[in-house]
Amino acid sequence: MRNLLDIMDLSEEELYGLINTALDISKDPDKYAELCKRKKLATLFFEPSTRTRLSFEAAMYELGGNVIGFSEASSSSVSKGESVADTVKVISNYADIIAMRHPKDGAALVAARNARIPVINAGDGGHHHPTQTLADLLTIYKEKGSFEDLTIGMCGDLKYGRTVHSLVYAMSRYKGVKFIFISPEELRFPRYIIDDVLDKKGIPYSETKDLEEAIPKLDILYMTRIQRERFEDLDEYERLKDSYVLTPEKMVSAKNDMAVLHPLPRVNEISVAVDDDPRAKYFEQTLNGKYMRMALILKLLGLDSKKEEAKESVKTFFIDGLKCPNNRCISKTEQELKQEFYAVDESKGIYRCIYCDTEVRK
Ligand code: CP
């Protein structure tokens, strides 16, 4: 059985397969209108969502299927203390596929290990959001015709913004890609992804606080919201929340074909006046998300007639006394979940939590 927890669960070939299916769906939706007849998608949203939940639901209806689920934790038995593991064991009796969003890093892995049906990670804390990346990739592909030789600027909350984490992993596969990370000091792009992906693969990147200095160099500008809900210190959020605002004045120095993406929702970081600029692609991005989610549902249900490819399994360890230090990790709240790690460098005693990828040392 196949899940999508992390964008890297999909091979390059599979990604192109999803893109081709999504493009075909957008051209000829009738061809796909009955493919999920008698199938049910369960949308388990323990955190608010507009685009992800509703585009998943629209996707399943447009494939001829049905949808069950909840849109907030308080309307499920989680509010009575039920675990993620028990919830998905039960849902596996009612649905054919799950899309789940949860505030804890790694919750999607717990779901996938306990469900008997495919699980799609619709966002786990500040960790991963692979289906947003599918929307981003289709948008980039439609705008640029390729993923190669692009300079991608990511601006805003690069620490907690799970969409930028997933997009860096995805784009790191392509030749000639460069990144410019634009953020306040406190919200810099996570070091572990720089070490694991960019440094390891020799991908060029730079970091700056200055959006105006970076903008003329960019082919893609990926704006993000400062993620209020992830801050432990709300005074820090108040201080940082208006760090960047993209305005028509700032767009003057951008390339004529630079595309502006944003996973949305936006708060203040893109002025509404930018919406009329033909380079603003963030509303089209939401439609692309629906087509990619349709393609993904078909793939995970085995209805796309393509062969499944198994992801290589990673060796994991249970180590006496070793605990994940990340307070936002699902291992802090899920009942009887053992602390489990994968090795970064076993000889030096360096491991990472399998749920949230936080580094720990023995
Ligand atoms: N981009 C995104 O995940 O939006 P929602 O939070 O509305 O689902």
Helix/strand layout:
Blueprint: H1 12-27, E1 40-45, H2 51-62, E2 66-70, H3 84-91, E3 97-102, H4 107-114, E4 119-124, H5 130-144, E5 151-155, H6 162-171, E6 178-182, H7 191-201, E7 205-208, H8 211-214, E8 220-223, H9 234-240, H10 248-251, E9 259-261, H11 282-300, E10 316-317, E11 341-345, E12 350-353, E13 359-361
Helix pairs in contact: 1-11, 2-11, 3-4, 5-6, 5-11
Bound molecules: phosphoric acid mono(formamide)ester.
Give the distinct bound molecules.
phosphoric acid mono(formamide)ester
Total number of β-strand segments? 13
Oligomer: single chain
Helix content: 25-40%
CATH topology (fold) name of the largest domain: Rossmann fold
What is the name of the CATH superfamily of the largest domain?
Aspartate/ornithine carbamoyltransferase
Summarize the structure.
This protein is an alpha/beta fold and 362 residues long.
Would you write up a description of this structure?
Helix 1 (12-27) packs across helix 11. The chain has three domains: 7-128 and 287-300, Rossmann fold, CATH 3.40.50.1370; 130-282, Rossmann fold; 316-361, Roll (SH3 type barrels), CATH 2.30.30. Strand 6 (178-182), helix 7 (191-201) and strand 7 form a beta-alpha-beta unit. By secondary structure, it is α/β, with parallel strands linked by helices. Residues 306-311 have low confidence and may be disordered. The chain is globular, with a radius of gyration of 20 Å. The protein is 31% helix and 16% strand. The protein has helices spanning 12-27, 51-62, 84-91, 107-114, 130-144, 162-171, 191-201, 211-214, 234-240, 248-251, 282-300, and strands spanning 40-45, 66-70, 97-102, 119-124, 151-155, 178-182, 205-208, 220-223, 259-261, 316-317, 341-345, 350-353, 359-361. Phosphoric acid mono(formamide)ester binds at residues 49-52, 123, 132, 263-265.
